[in-house]
Recover the amino acids of this structure.
C-alpha cells in the first residue's frame, strides 16, 4: 500500500511539472537571426518582446484568442520596438542604462521585470521567454 501511494504521488508530481513547463503557444516557423519570418497571416517579426498587455498570438498567427504577447519588430536603431496588431500601432523604447521600457505614446515606464514605475494603477506586464524546438519557436510564460 505504501508503495502504491508513493508511486501515485510521484506520478502526480511529474504530471504537475510537465503541465507547468508546457509552452503556452508555438509559432511556426521560428524566427531566423538573419532574416524576418512571415507567419501565415503575413506578419513579419524578428523578436518577441518580453511581455505585454496588448496582443494575442496563436499557432496560425496573430489573433485575439490566446495569451497576451507583444509581437515586435525592432526599428533600425535597435532601441525601439513596434507592437504589431495594435490600433494605430505602438512602440516602446528600451533604455539600456536604466534597464527600463518606456511606452512612446503614453510615457508609461516599466522595469525589466515588467513592474510599472511610478504608477501603481498600471497592470504589471506579463513576461514570456522563448526557446527554439526544431523549426518552432515555443513561448513560455514566466510569471
Amino acid at each position: 500500500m505504501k508503495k502504491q501511494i508513493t508511486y501515485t504521488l510521484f506520478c502526480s508530481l511529474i504530471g504537475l511539472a510537465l503541465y507547468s513547463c508546457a509552452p503556452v503557444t508555438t509559432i511556426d516557423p521560428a524566427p531566423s537571426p538573419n532574416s524576418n519570418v512571415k507567419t501565415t497571416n503575413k506578419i513579419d517579426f524578428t523578436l518577441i518582446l518580453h511581455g505585454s498587455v496588448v496582443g494575442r498570438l496563436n499557432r496560425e498567427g496573430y489573433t485575439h484568442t490566446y495569451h497576451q504577447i507583444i509581437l515586435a519588430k525592432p526599428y533600425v536603431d535597435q532601441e525601439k520596438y513596434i507592437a504589431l496588431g495594435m490600433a494605430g500601432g505602438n512602440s516602446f523604447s528600451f533604455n539600456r542604462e536604466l534597464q527600463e521600457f518606456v511606452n512612446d505614446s503614453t510615457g508609461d515606464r516599466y522595469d525589466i521585470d515588467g513592474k510599472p514605475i511610478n504608477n501603481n494603477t498600471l497592470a504589471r506586464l506579463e513576461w514570456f521567454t522563448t526557446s527554439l524546438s526544431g523549426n518552432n519557436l515555443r513561448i513560455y510564460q514566466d510569471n
User: Anything to note?
Assistant: The longest helix spans residues 2-20. The chain has one domain: 24-141.
